[in-house]
Amino acid sequence: MKLVDIGANLTDPVFRGKYRGNQAHPDDLAKILERAKEAGIVAMMVTGGSLEESRHAIEMCQQHAHLYATVGCHPTRTSEVSKYPGGAPAYFAALQKLITENRDKVVAIGECGLDYDRLHFSDRATQLEHFVHHFELAHTTGLPLFLHDRNTQGDFARLVKENRQKFTEGVVHSFTGSVSEAQELLDLGLYIGINGCSLKTEDNLAAVKSIPVDRLMIETDCPYCEIRPTHASHKLLENAVWKLPESKRKERWSEACLVKSRNEPCAIRQVLHVLAALHGMDEAEMADKLYGNTLRVFSGIN
C-alpha cells in the first residue's frame, strides 16, 4: 500500500513539542515520520502558507527525501503581503525565486485561495487581490495549484473559471462542502482532497460519496482535522483493522503514543478506511487509486 498525504502542516511547532510558545515535551518529529511510514505513507506534501513558512517547509523537505513542499500565501495570511518591503510585486517575486531555486522539492503553488469564515485575519478585498497572483505563479512555473475554498459565495469558482487556462491541474484540499459544491469543483476540472474535517456530518459523507474516485486525493491537514468520536464518519471505523496508536495528553507525553488532539500523518489510514467504505472498495484498491491520482497531478513527487 502506498499513500501520499497531500496536506501536512509539519512546520507547525507542535511537531517539535512546542505548544503556544512553551516546550511541553521533546521534539518528536522523527517518531512522527516513522509512524507515517509504518502506516503506508511514502510521500508527504508540507504546506507552505506564507513566504517564511514556505522557506521553512523547503528546508525541512531538503532533509527528508520523501517530503515535498508547496509554496504560496494562505488567504488568511494575505494581509502580510502589503507589509512586505516592496509590496505584492516583491513578495510574489520572492515566492517565484524560492520555487525556481528548489524545483526538486516544490511540487505545487499554494496553499492559496479564499476563506470568508476568517475575514478577521484578512479582509475579502485583500484575499481576492492576492489569490489572483497565484495563477500567475502557476502559469510561469507550470506547477499545479494547492487550493483553499471556504464559504466563498461563488467568488472562488468565479476566479478559478476566469483563470483556468493559466494552470494545468489543481486540488481543493480539506473539502467540507455539499454535493452541489463538489460538482461545481469537478466541473472546473479540479481534484478534491479529503481529510477528517471533510467527514463530520452525514451531508459531508454524501458529498464525498458523490465524488468520482478518479478525482479524489487524501490528506490529514495535520495537526488539525482528525476524525473525532462526534463525527458521522467515526461509526465507519468500528470494523477497521488498522487502529491508531494510543494517545496521551501532552503533559503525559510518551514517544510511543500520539499526543491527544494533535493529528498526525499516520491517521491518514482512518480517512482511507472511510473513503473505501463510502465507495464500496477495499482499502488497498482505494489507496492505489488515490496514489495514481496524486502522481498524475503532482508529477514532481517520485
Compressed to H and E, one letter per element, the order equals: EEEHEHEHEHEHEHEHEEEHH
Number of domains: 1
Question: Helical stretch count?
Answer: 9
Quote the average pLDDT.
Answer: 97
Which secondary-structure class do the elements indicate?
Answer: alpha/beta
Radius of gyration: 18 Å
CATH class: Alpha Beta
Weakly predicted, low-confidence segments: none
Strands of the biggest beta sheet: in what spatial order? 1-4-5-6-7-8-9-10
Q: Can you give the helix content as a percent range?
A: 25-40%
Query: Beta-strand level of the residues, as a percent range?
Result: 15-25%
CATH topology: TIM Barrel
Q: Do you know the CATH architecture?
A: Alpha-Beta Barrel
Report the strand count: 12
Overall form: globular
Main sheet record: 8 strands, parallel
Measured distance between first and last alpha carbons: 15 Å
CATH H level: which superfamily? Metal-dependent hydrolases
Family: Belongs to the metallo-dependent hydrolases superfamily. TatD-type hydrolase family.
Pfam families: TatD_DNase
InterPro entries: DNase_TatD-rel_CS (IPR018228), Metal_Hydrolase (IPR032466), TatD-like (IPR001130), TatD-type_Hydrolase (IPR050891)
GO cellular component, one term: cytosol
Structure in a nutshell:
The chain is of the alpha/beta class. The chain has helices at residues 29-38, 51-62, 87-101, 124-141, 155-162, 179-187, 202-210, 268-278, 283-297; strands at 3-8, 18-19, 22-23, 41-46, 67-71, 106-115, 145-150, 170-172, 191-194, 216-218, 247-248, 258-259. The protein has a single domain, classed as Metal-dependent hydrolases (TIM Barrel).
